[in-house]
Write a structure and sequence with these properties.
With 391 residues, the protein is mostly helical. It has helices spanning 2-16, 20-29, 31-35, 46-69, 88-96, 105-116, 124-132, 145-154, 172-181, 198-201, 214-219, 253-266, 273-284, 288-296, 307-317, 331-342, 344-356, 360-388, and strands at residues 223-227, 236-238, 241-245, 247-249, 300-302. The chain has a three-stranded mixed sheet with strand order 1-3-2, with helices on one face. The radius of gyration is 29 Å and the shape is elongated.
Amino acid sequence: MDRHKWRSLHHVLKRANHNIKLYLDSMKEIEERARSCYEGTISLSSNEFVEMLVLDGCFVLELFRGATQGFKQLGYPRNDPIFAMRGSMHSIQRDMIMLENQLPLFVLDRLLGLQLGYPEQKGLVAKLVLQFFDPLMPTDEPLTKSDRNKLESSLGWKTTFDPLSDQGGLHCLYVFRRSLLRRGPQLAPKVWIKRWSHANRVADKRRQQLIHCVTELREAGIKFKKRKTDRFWDIKFKNGILCMPRLLIHDGTKSLFLNLIAFEQCHHDCSNDITSFVIFMDNLINSPADVGYLHYCGIIEHWLGSDAEVADLFNRLCRQVVFDINGSYLSHLSEGVNRYYNHRWNTWRASLKHNYFSNPWAIVSLVAAVVLLLLTFAQTFCSVYVFYRPR
């Protein structure tokens, strides 16, 4: 891959008619700030670290710009093994979303500014990130123009929230996570890469139980309905109906959720919304039958081999994470679902409906039985009445 990185840098320098010294000197100016974004001591020398920022940064920017503007516009041939919109791009996107592969966003913004002739520009890379990682979105509901404009504005020059300020090092994964949640201004994490201890992060699976699985909820009379929204995490429950947005599961879903969960686990001042959603889905899905029913309701659409693979995916994602149920944005909703589930009348009513009203023939049979019972009672009453009638 290093060969392709040097090749992309050569394209950048040739296209902009620049000397590499311009980029190296610019990275020297922000080297200390860039190093502070990583936890621990970096073994690279100053020259090696600066070279790494330039090489990796230009490579990432070429991918971002090519996916948006077209690689042909940047001077790459159609049969290029890396810089072409072909099957390999999906694996590259999955690789670039990984937490350990992130670069500080201010580094990318500086490099892009040098290429465009505006070294101090901010916000353009964040917009490229949203477009580049869009295929990894876990929903096929399009982002509305209004929402996209609001999101891009909050990632740019607005004073309410400036992710490129000195509050901390922002990176592409954080930008993409924010695009998924879209909850308005929030503080950026102070440190964006932390090592986390395996021993201190393993949680008891039983303490992660928010809700019963689909099969058990159905037995209690709870219904499932697709909710039309592009916010895949926005789940509602009312009058025994659990309304869930459509969730698209593809080859990149596992990598996406794993890295978003890792990000939330590494940042104690960050919300656990993605983790909460994944654990909620893990609770709902215990078997392929649960997946199949959610697919029948239009809630889950997947491109995997089978429903069993989807069930296995969710059952494995959060095996080794720390999770506080009380801190989940779905805790209140789960309490409402559990109260409905624990109400005996709801279970009896659901059982009655399943056993006696599941199809028209069952209803006809029940009505016929009731009518026959009433006729028998009437006949018995008449016989007794005639026998004991006063003469």
